[in-house]
Amino acid sequence: MLSIPQHQHHLLSLHLYFQNPFNPQTFLFFPTTTTKRSKPFISSSLHHQHTSQETNNNEQQILRKHNSKSTTLLLRRLSQQQQQEEEEKKVEAEVVENEQEEEEKKVRLLELSLVRRRTPQFSGSIYLQSYPDSSSPPPIARLFPREADVDNDKMLKQALEIRRKVTSEILKECMRGAKFSITYSTNLVSLMPEFIDHVMIEAASMKQLPEFSHSTFNARAKTFIQNSNVVTLIRWLKHHSLTYPQIGKLICMSYGNLESIRRSVEWLKRIYVKGNYLGLVPIKAGRGVLERNPDELDEIIGYLESKGIRRDWMGYVVSRCPQVLSFTMEEVRSRVAFYMNMGMNEKDFGTMVFDYPKSFGALTLEEMTCKVNYLKEFGLSNEEVGRLVAFKPQLMACSIEERWKPLVKYLYYLGVRRDGMKRMLTLKPMIFCVDLETTIAPKVRFFQDIGIREEAIGRMLVRFPTLLTYSLYKKIRPVVCAVLSCFLYLCI
């Protein structure tokens, strides 16, 4: 044993240690080599603790960081894992929902199987339940009250939509039977939703009549359409040059009283309303015209005729101002008295209304009074304002805030005072009807460009206000250029 080399002693100690690691005899110190410094050979447990402490210290000292590639790879992997988890959750939720829906369907099918059988009905039909059905309501209404209400609302809306489509097709079929084109029938029926609903209601009410108690909805709807003569009325209105939008609006305005449309159009023809205005006048005048008695309308026309409006002018006046037919007799008299109090006679009033019918019916009495009072602020008397309005009734359609006040301010900066504005208004009232930015201002700038001062321009406009009504490029500019060229020729 003493003659064994040192490296064999080292191997022997390791062999003894692994055989019995807790033997105190193995805790010996053996030199590894003869040339190197001898190191102590400690137990495995102490060595493991020592190495773990060193690695912890090294990890605390050296913190490794991911580079861009490893970071991207890590984020991509994490995102894929999250997506997979979310998809798994969605799939699980869908499976649970499908299972619940299947269970609910089974319960509903079971309850429906217990409900007594009802008589077959047309799709979209709406009937009251018979006495035996209403005495024993289905158990679904008791088990699922809220869902049943929602389903009933949806079913009711769907039934109404189905009935509307069916009624529209029946009306189109009737129009095609009267030789109307498919395009014209489709366009016209699409503009009559109120009349379609009216046909639905009347066809449903016909179910209570004994002769229609066993007929289908299609037969009842077709019978009502034929009895109402709506197709014949459409043909008649189209013959009188009414467009299909006008025909559709008139039929909807009548609320089923189609005879009132024919009566109104016939009355308008008697007062010389022609062409497209036969449909335009009732639409703009409102639904009240269709409901009014022709005798009331004749009274209004007779009163206006006695105040200076000729009979053959009535068609033109009513066509340009349909609101006249919507006035009561008291309103018509108050409007006529408003103009008569300004000193107008019957001839002046008649020509004024014929020249500009909107001056009589398009404005309210309050607006008309405000405009007359504003014109009086220029120093005009009541009779002078009446003559001015009779000569130029378009003044009543001009806005005070948008047209007159900006013009007065502009003339004031040109040196025109109130007396000058009164003279301009009396001699050429059209100046207060034209647009300031497009008509008056360019002409004033032209005079400024040729060297005329603002005060001189103001005095020129007061003396000759008609100058503002001339065309700048057709009359004013050519004349000025010709005068300047002649002046230069004489000077040379």
UniProtKB/TrEMBL annotation:
What's a GO biological-process term for it?
Answer: DNA-templated transcription termination
Please list the GO terms describing molecular function. nucleic acid binding
Q: Which SMART domains match?
A: Mterf (SM00733)
Record's protein name: Uncharacterized protein
Which residue spans adopt a coiled-coil conformation according to this UniProt entry? 75-113
Q: Give the UniProt keywords, A-Z.
A: Coiled coil, Transcription, Transcription regulation, Transcription termination, Transit peptide
In which family does this protein belong, per the annotation?
Belongs to the mTERF family.
Q: Which organism is it from?
A: Aquilegia coerulea
Q: List the biased-composition ranges (Polar residues).
A: 41-61
Q: Which domain of life is it from?
A: Eukaryota
Q: Quick one: where's region Disordered?
A: 40-61
